[in-house]
Amino acid sequence: MIDYWQLLLLGSIAGFTIFLGLPLAVLQNVSPKKKGFLNAFAIGILVFLIIDVFSHAWESAGGSAHDAFAGKSSLRDAVFNLLAMFGGLAIGLLGLVFYESRYMKKPIQQRTGGSGGESAIVAGSGGDRHQQQLLQETNAYRLAMMIAIGIGAHNFSEGLAIGQSYASGAIGLAILLIIGFGSHNTTEGFGIAGPLTGLLNKPKIRFLILVGLIGGGPTFLGTMAGSLWTSTVAYILFLSIAGGALIYVSMLMYNSGRRQTTNSILMIGIFVGLCAGFITDLIVTLGGA
User: Fold this and answer.
1) Beta bridge partners of 118
2) 3-state SS of the chain: helix, strand, coil percent to 5?
3) pLDDT digit string (tens) for 54-106?
4) DSSP label at residue 196
5) DSSP run (H or E) holding 118
6) Could you tell me which residues come within 8 angstroms of residue 229 by beta carbon, excluding any fewer than 6 positions away?
7) Residue 56 carries which DSSP code?
8) What is the C-alpha to C-alpha distance for residues 236 and 240, in angstroms, rounded to an integer?
């Protein structure tokens, strides 16, 4: 039997195992093929998460609709659950479309320095390469942040499941969920780090800590909220938000991967990432959760 504070501690550990996968981001001198494979590996993990997220969300939303149709539960609850499902999908998918059109399409401003206002970007081909490098790094950081946000929404729903299991008295299930989700989050760290590998300048530790907190911290917050408050609607909502966001960023990463490597390497990387996701999920399944 674990007490409440031990539950919160274990919930935070389950979330922060995401940091175990983030060191992949500091790899440098990575060949285009290897970078393409690592990017595809991250896509595979995200595709698995999309499958996992929507299977759980639709199991709850579709199940409530089926029960309402059979007269076993309230029609109002079924309607709210379906609205949470499709509304969350719209927020996660279309919300990121709005975010990109509003904030990610702005051109990088040339920095100026010195009393004469000389451009910091050298003229000629060297300046073009420098500007291209700045654009590549900026897009990589933004993409990693968007992935962290999508994974964070997913992990909040996982935390809700842990907390609600504890509140219902299913202590064994809560512990199994912590172990399984902790394993999941390690591979999710790879998903965040994928766009950052092979950059000319190593990602700063401060940024990696930030995306780790955004991606893994919601597991702790969800554990705390779920232990105090039970809501199927909130569980479905955050799952579908996460699913929509992950669809969006995985498509961006796929487009980037097509330019980095061959289609065969891309598909192999996606396959390996999918396998990694399903294998970690097997931990929860074998535990009976």
Assistant:
1) 113
2) 80, 0, 15
3) 888 899 899 999 988 888 888 898 999 999 999 989 988 888 788 777 765 55
4) G
5) strand 118-119
6) none
7) H
8) 6
